[in-house]
Amino acid sequence: MKSSDTASSMIEVDNLRKEYADGTVAVHDLSFEVGEGEIAVLVGPSGCGKTTTMRMINRLVEPSAGRILVNGKDISQIDPVQLRRGIGYVIQQVGLFPHQTVAANIKTVPQLLGWDRTKSNARVNELLELVGLNPATHAKRYPHELSGGQRQRVGVARALAADPPVLLMDEPFGAVDPVARDRLQVEFLRLQEQVRKTIVFVTHDVDEAIRLGDRIAVMRDGGYLEQYAEPATLLSEPSSPYVAEFVGAERTLRRLAVVDVAATGLVKWPVVAPTSRLADCAATMDSAEAAWAVVADDGKVSGWLARAAATGEGTASDRVEPAQSVEVGDSLESALATILAGNSPGAIVTSAGRYEGVLGGAEIVTMARSR
Ligand SMILES: Nc1ncnc2c1ncn2[C@@H]1O[C@H](COP(=O)(O)OP(=O)(O)OP(=O)(O)O)[C@@H](O)[C@H]1O
Ligand SMILES: [Mg+2]
How far is the CA of 218 from the centre of ligand 2 (A)? Predict the structure, then answer.
Protein backbone atom coordinates (compact mmCIF):
# COMPACT_ATOMS: atom_id res chain seq x y z
CA MET A 1 0.00 0.00 0.00
CA LYS A 2 1.40 3.33 -1.00
CA SER A 3 1.85 5.79 1.82
CA SER A 4 0.99 8.96 0.01
CA ASP A 5 -0.05 10.24 -3.38
CA THR A 6 2.35 13.14 -3.52
CA ALA A 7 4.60 11.62 -6.22
CA SER A 8 5.38 14.05 -9.00
CA SER A 9 5.68 12.74 -12.54
CA MET A 10 9.13 11.43 -13.34
CA ILE A 11 8.34 9.98 -16.76
CA GLU A 12 5.70 11.37 -19.05
CA VAL A 13 4.89 9.69 -22.34
CA ASP A 14 2.73 11.79 -24.67
CA ASN A 15 1.00 10.44 -27.78
CA LEU A 16 3.96 8.28 -28.61
CA ARG A 17 4.02 6.46 -31.94
CA LYS A 18 6.54 4.19 -33.58
CA GLU A 19 6.28 3.01 -37.12
CA TYR A 20 9.24 0.88 -38.22
CA ALA A 21 10.71 1.24 -41.73
CA ASP A 22 8.72 -1.75 -43.00
CA GLY A 23 5.43 -0.08 -42.04
CA THR A 24 4.85 -2.03 -38.79
CA VAL A 25 3.16 0.24 -36.29
CA ALA A 26 4.67 -1.04 -33.04
CA VAL A 27 3.33 1.69 -30.77
CA HIS A 28 0.19 3.66 -31.46
CA ASP A 29 -0.63 6.93 -29.70
CA LEU A 30 0.61 5.82 -26.30
CA SER A 31 0.34 8.13 -23.28
CA PHE A 32 1.06 7.44 -19.63
CA GLU A 33 2.83 8.99 -16.66
CA VAL A 34 4.96 7.45 -13.97
CA GLY A 35 5.33 9.22 -10.63
CA GLU A 36 8.67 9.51 -8.89
CA GLY A 37 9.44 6.29 -7.01
CA GLU A 38 6.56 4.44 -8.66
CA ILE A 39 6.54 1.15 -10.54
CA ALA A 40 4.60 1.26 -13.80
CA VAL A 41 4.10 -2.11 -15.45
CA LEU A 42 3.51 -2.57 -19.17
CA VAL A 43 1.70 -5.81 -19.81
CA GLY A 44 0.32 -7.28 -23.01
CA PRO A 45 0.77 -10.06 -25.55
CA SER A 46 3.96 -10.70 -27.48
CA GLY A 47 4.58 -8.06 -30.12
CA CYS A 48 2.30 -5.38 -28.63
CA GLY A 49 5.12 -2.83 -28.44
CA LYS A 50 6.43 -3.12 -24.88
CA THR A 51 10.14 -3.38 -25.70
CA THR A 52 9.82 -0.71 -28.38
CA THR A 53 8.34 1.63 -25.76
CA MET A 54 11.23 0.95 -23.37
CA ARG A 55 13.77 1.54 -26.11
CA MET A 56 12.18 4.86 -26.95
CA ILE A 57 12.48 5.95 -23.31
CA ASN A 58 16.26 5.58 -23.43
CA ARG A 59 16.54 6.66 -27.07
CA LEU A 60 17.72 3.36 -28.50
CA VAL A 61 14.74 3.83 -30.85
CA GLU A 62 13.52 7.22 -32.05
CA PRO A 63 9.76 7.76 -32.03
CA SER A 64 7.90 8.58 -35.24
CA ALA A 65 5.70 11.01 -33.31
CA GLY A 66 4.95 12.13 -29.80
CA ARG A 67 7.34 12.96 -27.01
CA ILE A 68 8.78 11.67 -23.77
CA LEU A 69 9.70 13.78 -20.77
CA VAL A 70 12.03 12.47 -18.10
CA ASN A 71 12.11 14.62 -14.99
CA GLY A 72 10.34 17.34 -16.92
CA LYS A 73 12.84 17.44 -19.81
CA ASP A 74 12.05 16.45 -23.38
CA ILE A 75 14.48 13.60 -24.00
CA SER A 76 14.85 14.47 -27.69
CA GLN A 77 16.85 17.46 -26.40
CA ILE A 78 19.14 15.35 -24.21
CA ASP A 79 22.29 13.69 -25.52
CA PRO A 80 21.46 9.95 -25.64
CA VAL A 81 24.62 8.94 -23.80
CA GLN A 82 23.94 11.47 -21.07
CA LEU A 83 20.31 10.34 -20.89
CA ARG A 84 21.23 6.68 -20.51
CA ARG A 85 23.51 7.41 -17.57
CA GLY A 86 20.41 8.30 -15.62
CA ILE A 87 18.48 5.23 -16.76
CA GLY A 88 19.37 1.69 -15.72
CA TYR A 89 18.25 -0.88 -18.26
CA VAL A 90 17.64 -4.56 -17.52
CA ILE A 91 17.15 -6.02 -20.97
CA GLN A 92 15.00 -8.93 -21.99
CA GLN A 93 17.01 -12.21 -21.66
CA VAL A 94 19.38 -10.59 -19.16
CA GLY A 95 22.11 -9.66 -21.63
CA LEU A 96 25.11 -10.10 -19.34
CA PHE A 97 28.46 -10.07 -21.12
CA PRO A 98 29.33 -13.80 -21.17
CA HIS A 99 33.12 -13.38 -21.19
CA GLN A 100 33.21 -11.01 -18.24
CA THR A 101 32.95 -11.85 -14.57
CA VAL A 102 29.95 -10.82 -12.51
CA ALA A 103 32.02 -8.00 -10.99
CA ALA A 104 33.12 -6.73 -14.40
CA ASN A 105 29.55 -6.87 -15.68
CA ILE A 106 28.32 -4.78 -12.76
CA LYS A 107 31.17 -2.29 -13.18
CA THR A 108 30.34 -1.52 -16.82
CA VAL A 109 28.69 1.84 -16.19
CA PRO A 110 30.87 2.96 -13.26
CA GLN A 111 33.88 2.35 -15.51
CA LEU A 112 32.35 4.43 -18.29
CA LEU A 113 31.85 7.13 -15.70
CA GLY A 114 35.53 6.92 -14.78
CA TRP A 115 35.10 5.79 -11.17
CA ASP A 116 38.33 4.60 -9.55
CA ARG A 117 38.86 0.93 -8.74
CA THR A 118 38.28 1.17 -5.03
CA LYS A 119 34.99 2.95 -5.48
CA SER A 120 33.74 0.56 -8.20
CA ASN A 121 34.80 -2.53 -6.25
CA ALA A 122 33.04 -1.28 -3.16
CA ARG A 123 29.94 -0.63 -5.26
CA VAL A 124 30.05 -4.18 -6.70
CA ASN A 125 30.08 -5.67 -3.20
CA GLU A 126 27.33 -3.38 -2.00
CA LEU A 127 25.12 -4.21 -4.98
CA LEU A 128 25.67 -7.95 -4.77
CA GLU A 129 24.62 -7.84 -1.11
CA LEU A 130 21.64 -5.72 -2.06
CA VAL A 131 20.37 -8.25 -4.61
CA GLY A 132 21.03 -11.16 -2.26
CA LEU A 133 24.26 -12.62 -3.66
CA ASN A 134 27.37 -13.23 -1.61
CA PRO A 135 30.19 -11.14 -3.12
CA ALA A 136 32.88 -13.55 -1.92
CA THR A 137 31.43 -16.45 -3.89
CA HIS A 138 29.80 -14.69 -6.84
CA ALA A 139 31.85 -11.64 -7.87
CA LYS A 140 34.49 -13.66 -9.73
CA ARG A 141 32.14 -16.09 -11.46
CA TYR A 142 31.13 -15.93 -15.09
CA PRO A 143 27.48 -15.73 -16.13
CA HIS A 144 27.38 -19.39 -17.24
CA GLU A 145 28.38 -20.38 -13.69
CA LEU A 146 25.18 -18.87 -12.26
CA SER A 147 21.59 -20.10 -12.07
CA GLY A 148 18.94 -18.29 -14.11
CA GLY A 149 17.70 -16.44 -11.04
CA GLN A 150 21.21 -15.40 -10.05
CA ARG A 151 21.84 -14.07 -13.54
CA GLN A 152 18.67 -12.01 -13.28
CA ARG A 153 19.90 -10.55 -10.01
CA VAL A 154 23.23 -9.62 -11.54
CA GLY A 155 21.31 -7.92 -14.36
CA VAL A 156 19.43 -5.86 -11.75
CA ALA A 157 22.67 -5.06 -9.89
CA ARG A 158 24.29 -3.90 -13.11
CA ALA A 159 21.35 -1.63 -13.90
CA LEU A 160 21.58 -0.11 -10.42
CA ALA A 161 25.36 0.35 -10.52
CA ALA A 162 25.53 4.09 -11.09
CA ASP A 163 22.45 4.68 -8.93
CA PRO A 164 20.26 6.03 -11.77
CA PRO A 165 16.92 7.55 -10.74
CA VAL A 166 15.08 5.61 -13.46
CA LEU A 167 15.09 1.88 -14.19
CA LEU A 168 13.71 0.14 -17.26
CA MET A 169 13.21 -3.57 -16.67
CA ASP A 170 12.18 -5.67 -19.66
CA GLU A 171 10.86 -9.02 -18.43
CA PRO A 172 13.66 -9.26 -15.86
CA PHE A 173 12.18 -12.41 -14.34
CA GLY A 174 10.96 -13.91 -17.60
CA ALA A 175 13.51 -16.68 -17.90
CA VAL A 176 13.18 -18.29 -14.45
CA ASP A 177 10.90 -20.96 -13.04
CA PRO A 178 7.81 -19.95 -11.03
CA VAL A 179 9.36 -20.61 -7.60
CA ALA A 180 12.48 -18.56 -8.32
CA ARG A 181 10.27 -15.92 -9.88
CA ASP A 182 8.16 -15.66 -6.77
CA ARG A 183 11.25 -15.15 -4.69
CA LEU A 184 12.73 -12.59 -7.07
CA GLN A 185 9.45 -10.64 -6.96
CA VAL A 186 9.47 -10.53 -3.16
CA GLU A 187 13.12 -9.46 -3.13
CA PHE A 188 12.48 -6.91 -5.82
CA LEU A 189 9.74 -5.24 -3.77
CA ARG A 190 11.99 -5.22 -0.72
CA LEU A 191 14.79 -3.71 -2.81
CA GLN A 192 12.47 -1.04 -4.17
CA GLU A 193 11.50 -0.11 -0.59
CA GLN A 194 15.15 0.75 -0.12
CA VAL A 195 16.12 2.33 -3.42
CA ARG A 196 12.82 3.99 -4.45
CA LYS A 197 13.56 4.16 -8.16
CA THR A 198 11.10 5.22 -10.81
CA ILE A 199 10.58 2.00 -12.71
CA VAL A 200 9.00 0.93 -15.97
CA PHE A 201 8.66 -2.83 -15.79
CA VAL A 202 7.59 -5.08 -18.65
CA THR A 203 6.00 -8.47 -18.22
CA HIS A 204 3.74 -10.98 -19.97
CA ASP A 205 2.44 -12.16 -16.65
CA VAL A 206 -0.66 -10.44 -15.31
CA ASP A 207 -0.18 -11.75 -11.78
CA GLU A 208 3.32 -10.32 -11.74
CA ALA A 209 1.96 -6.98 -13.00
CA ILE A 210 -0.66 -6.86 -10.26
CA ARG A 211 1.79 -7.83 -7.60
CA LEU A 212 4.49 -5.33 -8.53
CA GLY A 213 2.78 -2.43 -10.24
CA ASP A 214 1.62 0.79 -8.64
CA ARG A 215 -0.02 1.35 -12.00
CA ILE A 216 -0.43 -0.99 -14.94
CA ALA A 217 -0.67 -0.25 -18.65
CA VAL A 218 -2.62 -3.01 -20.38
CA MET A 219 -1.59 -3.03 -24.03
CA ARG A 220 -2.93 -4.97 -26.96
CA ASP A 221 -1.71 -5.89 -30.43
CA GLY A 222 -0.80 -2.97 -32.63
CA GLY A 223 0.69 -1.00 -29.77
CA TYR A 224 -2.62 0.24 -28.38
CA LEU A 225 -3.04 1.15 -24.74
CA GLU A 226 -6.29 -0.28 -23.41
CA GLN A 227 -6.17 1.04 -19.86
CA TYR A 228 -3.68 2.60 -17.48
CA ALA A 229 -4.76 2.30 -13.86
CA GLU A 230 -3.95 0.98 -10.42
CA PRO A 231 -4.30 -2.79 -10.05
CA ALA A 232 -7.47 -2.62 -7.97
CA THR A 233 -9.11 -0.30 -10.51
CA LEU A 234 -8.23 -2.58 -13.44
CA LEU A 235 -9.98 -5.38 -11.64
CA SER A 236 -12.99 -3.51 -10.36
CA GLU A 237 -13.49 -1.18 -13.33
CA PRO A 238 -11.91 -2.71 -16.43
CA SER A 239 -12.41 -0.27 -19.31
CA SER A 240 -13.27 -2.98 -21.83
CA PRO A 241 -14.08 -6.69 -22.07
CA TYR A 242 -10.50 -7.17 -23.35
CA VAL A 243 -9.05 -5.77 -20.12
CA ALA A 244 -11.50 -7.70 -17.95
CA GLU A 245 -10.57 -10.92 -19.69
CA PHE A 246 -6.87 -10.14 -19.74
CA VAL A 247 -6.54 -9.34 -16.04
CA GLY A 248 -8.93 -12.10 -15.00
CA ALA A 249 -11.18 -9.56 -13.29
CA GLU A 250 -14.12 -11.88 -12.87
CA ARG A 251 -12.06 -14.63 -11.36
CA THR A 252 -10.51 -12.21 -8.87
CA LEU A 253 -13.83 -10.68 -7.92
CA ARG A 254 -15.31 -14.13 -7.34
CA ARG A 255 -12.37 -14.98 -5.13
CA LEU A 256 -12.92 -11.93 -2.95
CA ALA A 257 -16.03 -13.58 -1.58
CA VAL A 258 -14.37 -16.89 -0.75
CA VAL A 259 -10.92 -15.87 0.46
CA ASP A 260 -10.52 -14.69 4.04
CA VAL A 261 -8.43 -11.87 5.43
CA ALA A 262 -5.20 -13.46 6.64
CA ALA A 263 -2.91 -12.14 9.35
CA THR A 264 0.05 -12.40 6.99
CA GLY A 265 0.29 -9.88 4.17
CA LEU A 266 -1.03 -7.00 6.26
CA VAL A 267 0.75 -3.68 6.06
CA LYS A 268 2.22 -2.36 9.31
CA TRP A 269 0.63 1.09 9.34
CA PRO A 270 1.39 3.95 11.73
CA VAL A 271 -0.68 3.83 14.89
CA VAL A 272 -1.31 6.72 17.28
CA ALA A 273 -2.95 6.67 20.68
CA PRO A 274 -6.15 8.70 21.21
CA THR A 275 -4.28 10.70 23.85
CA SER A 276 -1.36 11.56 21.53
CA ARG A 277 -0.91 15.25 20.79
CA LEU A 278 -1.76 16.13 17.19
CA ALA A 279 1.77 17.43 16.56
CA ASP A 280 3.19 14.06 17.61
CA CYS A 281 0.65 12.25 15.42
CA ALA A 282 1.74 14.43 12.48
CA ALA A 283 5.38 13.56 13.12
CA THR A 284 4.60 9.84 13.27
CA MET A 285 2.76 10.00 9.94
CA ASP A 286 5.42 12.15 8.30
CA SER A 287 8.23 9.82 9.24
CA ALA A 288 6.24 6.92 7.72
CA GLU A 289 5.21 9.10 4.75
CA ALA A 290 1.64 8.13 5.51
CA ALA A 291 -1.40 10.25 4.71
CA TRP A 292 -3.30 8.81 7.68
CA ALA A 293 -2.84 6.78 10.85
CA VAL A 294 -4.82 4.20 12.76
CA VAL A 295 -6.03 5.47 16.14
CA ALA A 296 -5.86 2.70 18.71
CA ASP A 297 -5.55 2.48 22.46
CA ASP A 298 -3.45 -0.50 23.48
CA GLY A 299 -4.64 -2.42 20.41
CA LYS A 300 -8.28 -1.33 20.62
CA VAL A 301 -9.14 0.57 17.45
CA SER A 302 -11.22 3.72 17.73
CA GLY A 303 -10.82 4.91 14.14
CA TRP A 304 -8.40 6.78 11.92
CA LEU A 305 -6.80 10.20 11.74
CA ALA A 306 -6.01 12.05 8.50
CA ARG A 307 -2.59 13.73 8.27
CA ALA A 308 -4.38 16.88 7.08
CA ALA A 309 -6.43 16.90 10.30
CA ALA A 310 -3.39 16.53 12.53
CA THR A 311 -2.68 20.23 13.00
CA GLY A 312 -3.10 22.66 15.85
CA GLU A 313 -3.70 21.97 19.51
CA GLY A 314 -5.47 18.95 20.95
CA THR A 315 -5.13 15.19 20.72
CA ALA A 316 -5.95 12.46 18.21
CA SER A 317 -9.26 11.79 19.99
CA ASP A 318 -10.46 15.30 19.01
CA ARG A 319 -10.11 14.59 15.28
CA VAL A 320 -10.54 10.82 15.01
CA GLU A 321 -12.87 9.53 12.29
CA PRO A 322 -14.77 6.48 13.41
CA ALA A 323 -14.00 3.33 11.43
CA GLN A 324 -15.44 -0.14 11.20
CA SER A 325 -12.56 -2.60 11.42
CA VAL A 326 -12.53 -6.12 9.96
CA GLU A 327 -11.38 -9.27 11.72
CA VAL A 328 -8.84 -11.78 10.48
CA GLY A 329 -11.06 -14.50 8.98
CA ASP A 330 -13.66 -12.10 7.55
CA SER A 331 -13.95 -12.20 3.76
CA LEU A 332 -11.72 -10.01 1.61
CA GLU A 333 -14.94 -8.71 0.09
CA SER A 334 -15.95 -7.22 3.43
CA ALA A 335 -12.50 -5.62 3.76
CA LEU A 336 -12.83 -4.08 0.31
CA ALA A 337 -16.36 -2.94 1.14
CA THR A 338 -15.12 -0.92 4.13
CA ILE A 339 -12.76 1.00 1.85
CA LEU A 340 -15.29 1.51 -0.93
CA ALA A 341 -17.87 2.72 1.59
CA GLY A 342 -15.44 5.47 2.61
CA ASN A 343 -15.18 4.03 6.09
CA SER A 344 -11.39 4.45 6.17
CA PRO A 345 -8.66 4.86 3.51
CA GLY A 346 -7.52 1.28 4.08
CA ALA A 347 -9.20 -1.65 5.79
CA ILE A 348 -8.13 -1.76 9.45
CA VAL A 349 -7.69 -5.38 10.47
CA THR A 350 -8.01 -6.75 14.00
CA SER A 351 -7.43 -10.18 15.42
CA ALA A 352 -9.50 -11.09 18.46
CA GLY A 353 -10.43 -7.40 18.64
CA ARG A 354 -6.86 -6.13 18.65
CA TYR A 355 -5.19 -4.10 15.91
CA GLU A 356 -3.07 -6.23 13.54
CA GLY A 357 -2.45 -4.15 10.42
CA VAL A 358 -4.00 -2.54 7.39
CA LEU A 359 -5.03 -3.72 3.94
CA GLY A 360 -5.13 -1.40 0.93
CA GLY A 361 -6.92 -2.21 -2.31
CA ALA A 362 -3.73 -3.58 -3.84
CA GLU A 363 -3.06 -5.92 -0.91
CA ILE A 364 -6.65 -7.17 -1.01
CA VAL A 365 -6.28 -7.97 -4.69
CA THR A 366 -2.95 -9.70 -4.09
CA MET A 367 -4.43 -11.82 -1.31
CA ALA A 368 -7.40 -12.77 -3.47
CA ARG A 369 -5.15 -13.92 -6.28
CA SER A 370 -2.43 -15.60 -4.32
CA ARG A 371 -4.47 -17.95 -2.17
N1 LIG B 1 13.46 -3.18 -35.93
C2 LIG B 1 12.20 -3.52 -36.23
N3 LIG B 1 11.73 -3.41 -37.49
C4 LIG B 1 10.46 -3.73 -37.79
N5 LIG B 1 9.56 -4.16 -36.89
C6 LIG B 1 9.97 -4.29 -35.63
C7 LIG B 1 11.30 -3.99 -35.22
N8 LIG B 1 11.40 -4.21 -33.88
C9 LIG B 1 10.20 -4.65 -33.48
N10 LIG B 1 9.32 -4.69 -34.53
C11 LIG B 1 7.92 -5.07 -34.49
O12 LIG B 1 7.24 -4.18 -33.63
C13 LIG B 1 6.24 -4.86 -32.89
C14 LIG B 1 6.47 -4.63 -31.41
O15 LIG B 1 7.69 -5.25 -31.02
P16 LIG B 1 8.21 -5.22 -29.53
O17 LIG B 1 9.54 -5.85 -29.50
O18 LIG B 1 8.09 -3.84 -29.02
O19 LIG B 1 7.11 -6.15 -28.82
P20 LIG B 1 7.00 -6.67 -27.31
O21 LIG B 1 5.69 -6.21 -26.80
O22 LIG B 1 8.20 -6.30 -26.55
O23 LIG B 1 6.93 -8.26 -27.51
P24 LIG B 1 7.51 -9.46 -26.59
O25 LIG B 1 6.55 -9.56 -25.46
O26 LIG B 1 7.47 -10.65 -27.48
O27 LIG B 1 8.89 -9.10 -26.16
C28 LIG B 1 6.31 -6.32 -33.31
O29 LIG B 1 5.34 -6.55 -34.28
C30 LIG B 1 7.71 -6.44 -33.90
O31 LIG B 1 7.75 -7.44 -34.87
MG1 LIG C 1 9.74 -7.43 -25.69
Answer: 14
Whole-model pTM: value is 0.76
Q: How much distance in Å is there from the Cα of 221 to the middle of ligand 1?
A: 10
Mutate to test the pocket of ligand 1, among 18, 30, 46, 48 (most ligand atoms within 8 A of CB): 48
How far is the centre of ligand 2, averaged over its atoms, from the C-alpha of 51 (Å)?
4
pLDDT, tens digit only, all 371 positions of the chain: 554 444 578 999 999 999 999 999 999 999 999 999 999 999 998 899 999 999 999 999 999 999 999 999 999 999 999 999 889 888 866 678 889 999 999 998 888 788 899 999 999 999 998 888 899 999 999 999 988 778 888 988 888 888 889 999 998 887 777 777 777 888 888 888 888 999 999 998 888 898 899 999 999 998 999 999 998 888 888 999 999 988 887 778 788 888 999 998 899 899 999 999 999 999 999 999 889 999 999 999 999 999 999 999 999 999 999 998 999 999 999 999 898 888 889 999 999 999 999 998 888 888 888 76
Taking the C-alpha atoms of residue 270 and residue 276, their distance in angstroms, rounded to an integer, is 13
Q: Residue count of the chain, please give it.
A: 371
**Residue owning the nearest CA to atom 10 of ligand 1:** 26
Query: What separation in Å is there between the alpha carbon of 63 and the centre of ligand 1?
Result: 14
Domain 9-258 superfamily per CATH = P-loop containing nucleotide triphosphate hydrolases (3.40.50.300)
Name the region of 274 (left: φ>0; alpha: ψ -120 to 50; beta: rest): alpha
Question: Distance between CA atoms of 73 and 253, rounded to whole angstroms?
Answer: 41
9-258 and 271-370 have identical folds: no
Three-state SS across 60-92? CCCCCEEEEEECCEEHHHCCHHHHHHCEEEEEC
Residue type, 94: V
Instruction: Classify domain 271-370 at the CATH topology level.
Output: CBS-domain (3.10.580)
**CA-proximal residue: ligand 1, atom 13 (nearest):** 26
For the chain, domain boundaries: 9-258, 271-370
Ligand 1 pocket, residues with Cβ under 6 angstroms: 20, 22, 24, 26, 46-52, 92, 204
Ligand 1 atom 27, closest CA: 46
DSSP strands (E only) in 122-223: 166-170, 198-203, 215-220
Ligand nearest to the CA of 203: 1
204 C-alpha vs ligand 1 centroid, how far in Å?
A: 14
